[in-house]
Amino acid sequence: xxxxxxxxxxxxxxxxxxxxxxxxxxxxxxxxxxxxxxxxxxxxxxxxxxxxxxxxxxxxxxxxxxxxxxxxxxxxxxxxxxxxxxxxxxxxxxxxxxxxxxxxxxxxxxxxxxxxxxxxxxxxxxxxxxxxxxxxxxxxxxxxxxxxxxxxxxxxxxxxxxxxxxxxxxx
Length: 171
What we know:
81% helix, mainly alpha, Prepilin_peptidase/N-MTase, single chain, elongated, 0% strand, membrane
């Protein structure tokens, strides 16, 4: 897979970044064309091998983000967008984007908490949550109360995560 796949995926990432930061949603009119175009381009350039490459990437992006969606960490638009990223760029790059995005999201979350001066309250809440997981293993514990959730557009972390993965010399 060449650099052209990243550049082909970039307009979809930019559109998702814009809509997510403005509305906290990534609409289907961005995600569906991203997935379809990724499969189409990979299929045309690589034949069956390209389609397999796109399928593995789309499945990886979708499944890993679906797990995060189930626990309430990301929205459904993020899940579908990562299927598109995977269709364009394959398994390896998509996994790297997820890792970098999570690192950027952690930094953004800490900055928001420090700015709001709620770091220690949140740490106590996380400690209680983790203690509760060991005694009451229910996924609903992660969803919690919306007022307790620290929310920001995940694309604030995904876009720099994708750039970092690209500049990091992925294979």
